[in-house]
Specification:
The protein has strands spanning 18-19, 24-31, 36-37, 42-52, 57-58, 63-65, 72-74, 79-80, 85-87, 90-91, 96-97, 102-103, 108-109, 114-115, 120-121, 129-132, 137-141. It has a single domain (18-141), classed as UDP N-Acetylglucosamine Acyltransferase, domain 1 (3 Solenoid), CATH 2.160.10. The chain contains no helices and 17 strands.
Length: 143
Amino acid sequence: MSNQPSFWPPPDLSQAAFVADNAVVMGVVEVGVGASIWYGTVVRGDVERIVIGNHSNVQDGAVLHGDPGLVTVLEDHVTIGHRAVIHSAHIEKGCLIGIGAVILDGVRVGAGSIVGAGSIVTKDIPPLSLVVGVPAKKVRDIS
């Protein structure tokens, strides 16, 4: 993890399973038990709090950030794919966010859903849904 100067106390990463040396984790960030933050990832809790749940993983090059009043939340067992952007969104338990997907402000992705690679999500996603495209649209239920 980067040792950049900060106005915020360093995040408590003691429960994380792994935080890459070149990941940037700053501001008010809560990281759950067994969570992992991979190479080149940026987790910026400088504007608003970010919560990463137990056993969730944020893969290489992903960005988590937010706007005032909109906490960014990854619940337990969430996978964020390489280069994905999660901005002021709430990702419920067991979701998979594909490589390069973008989840925009205020969106809630329902439990167990899958967001396809490269999708841009602008509206809430119901639980157990597969969504793809720009903008992302539901293509089927996940059974």
